[in-house]
Request: fold
Amino acid sequence: MAVVDKAGPHRDSRSFSEIVNDEKYRSVFYQIVVAIAVIWAANYLFTNTSANLEARGMSAGFGFLSSTAGFSIAWSIIDYQAGDTYFDVFIVGIANTLLVSLVAVVASTFFGFVVGVMRLSKNFLVAKLASTYVEIMRNVPLLLHILFWYTVSAALPRPNTSLELFDAFFLNNRGLYMPAPVPGDGFSLAVIAAVLGIIIAYVIAVWAKKRQLATGERFPAFWVGMAVIFGLPIVVFVIMGSPLSFDFAELKGFNYQGGASVPRAFCALLFALSVYHTVFMAEAVRAGILSVSHGQTEASYALGLKPSWTLRLVVIPQAMRAVVPPMISNWMNVVKNSSLAIAIGYPDLVAVFMQTSLNQSGHAIEIVAMVMLFYMTVSLTISAALNYYNKLVQIKER
Reply:
């Protein structure tokens, strides 16, 4: 006798309503729709822009980069002449931007840690001074900082009455003049020794940490590492006959000649970027330290650690888990905010490439795109590096 299935024929396929209401399929559908919309918009902008440029007899493309740029640049850390190409101008702008940004990042990070710790000091005067500094500096726009310090720098002495330090560094209303290193034969070996010293110091630090975790005994890895980093290249430097000399700046006529120098605009921009971004770094450090349980400090004191050791070995390493994320934004902001240098005439990438080169060549789209790509690349690089470090300092779940 045949058995009839009262439930009807079995269906393997899902109904349309079930597919529509499934979150997985809906997300894929919306992503496809968004991708199609983005591709259509990009194609529309490209074709429309190309048609408009063609109608006006303007060419598009990056061939202009090999054309001669008929202007000079006031200051550059790499060689540049007025007859060089627009691509050379692009490289000069990148070099000038990265130089001031790198120094400002280091300065703002270092002083940010100092000010952040000062704000938590038990000394009333120290804490209030740090708090006043933070509240004043962060509530003034960065552009005003730059203009203010550039104006103040104009009040520096003239070259013949420069502020001197060790008869080698001279600061006046035209800039900062300093000795320029002139490497000789064999100096490259000292550089290699310095790199090797850094590697050895890192290996020692890793070994010392593993040894401390295994035995509880502390090894002075920091001081030994510093001795290797500086001692090894110094020994090689002396053995090679000290292959390094310095070209000192000398006052000749109305200004200093020789040596190395940075213009007044560089000094003002560097000072403004450092002063402004220090306060945000300080607040990140203060918040990170406050995020560490006070029981950690009490436990370290109970073990006999000095306050300075407690801060350096217990509090700061744990605070870095909270400090790194805002530090990423702060570092990226330093690089991006350096573009305000155009207000005081410092020849950064925006000033020499997106302004002067754009006005002469007329390739606005290409130049703006290249500048945007540079800032995006630097920001993503900073983000990737610090995110990698952030993963290293995060608590690993077992």
